[in-house]
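hey
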């Protein structure tokens, strides 16, 4: 084999490899994840795949106590969206353990179970906070689907020097592309502006134009049409939460004993919230040989 023939063969092999890579690259961006019969999925950003969640960890909406106003607001917004009407992205912010993520999952299940022919199929898609930069890719991939999607990010926040929040800003409202009509974005956070207060204060103190710097940081939260605040509950509300859980799980116990034990549990934990309430009820059920 001559040197010339050898070079020609190598060139031909490289050309075939280049063609295959080009073909793969051209179809990769057009690939849409498969939507099956499940009503909830988890977004795998690395694989560009929606993994079905066969059983969502959630409680019935009627078991959520002490958040009546925000519950009705988010429920109405979700119903409007499921009917194809106008609706807003929602930021659920505030105290830990007060049912922010539980409310999103409960409302999704409640709306999906209504016998109403005017409602579109409603799918809940969970995205990790670390994968927020892939949100535009996810939204594009489901934009043509007939179903309607709530993309849900739990415990969303951004730390100092992060820039991934800019991807979220552009896709929610304000970017050239914007969000698809069949997609809403719901997020929960302990921070009202999704960023630590010292970060915002530092921007104000060190920037040449303090107002502009702060506006850049907090304008992300302005992209949410709904701000729903969750606050620490008082003792009567906490006891109502505990009673709601015991009734739902069929745990028989008199009010005086239940209240005394629940108050002691909350005092040991140093807080009162829905999370503390369900943790107490789980412990109580275990003592009685019951599963919850």
């Amino acid at each position: 084999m001559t040197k010339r023939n050898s070079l020609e063969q190598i060139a031909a092999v490289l050309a075939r490899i280049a063609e295959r890579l080009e073909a793969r690259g051209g179809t990769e961006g057009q690939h849409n994840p498969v939507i099956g019969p499940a009503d909830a999925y988890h977004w795998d950003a690395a694989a560009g795949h929606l993994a079905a969640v066969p059983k969502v960890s959630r409680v019935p909406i009627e078991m959520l106590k002490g958040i009546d106003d925000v519950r009705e607001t988010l429920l109405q917004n979700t119903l409007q969206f499921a009917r194809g009407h106008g609706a807003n992205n929602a930021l659920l912010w505030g105290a830990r353990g007060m049912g922010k993520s539980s409310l999103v999952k409960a409302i999704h299940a409640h709306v999906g179970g209504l016998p109403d022919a005017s409602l579109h199929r409603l799918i809940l898609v969970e995205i990790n906070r670390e994968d927020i930069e892939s949100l535009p890719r996810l939204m594009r991939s489901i934009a043509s689907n007939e179903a309607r999607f709530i993309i849900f990010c739990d415990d969303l926040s951004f730390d100092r020097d992060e820039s991934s929040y800019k991807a979220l800003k552009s896709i929610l409202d304000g970017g050239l592309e914007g969000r698809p009509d069949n997609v809403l974005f719901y997020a929960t956070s302990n921070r009202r502006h999704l960023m630590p207060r010292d970060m915002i204060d530092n921007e104000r103190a060190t920037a040449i134009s303090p107002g502009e710097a702060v506006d850049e940081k907090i304008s992300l939260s302005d992209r949410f049409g709904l701000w729903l605040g969750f606050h620490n509950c008082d003792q009567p509300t906490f006891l109502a939460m505990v009673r709601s859980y015991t009734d739902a799980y069929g745990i028989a116990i008199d009010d005086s004993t239940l209240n005394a034990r629940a108050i002691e549990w909350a005092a040991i934990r140093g807080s009162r919230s829905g999370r503390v309430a369900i943790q107490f009820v789980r412990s109580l059920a275990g003592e009685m040989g019951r599963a919850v």
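The chain has three domains: 1-31, 40-230, 235-287. The first strand starts at residue 40 and ends at 44.
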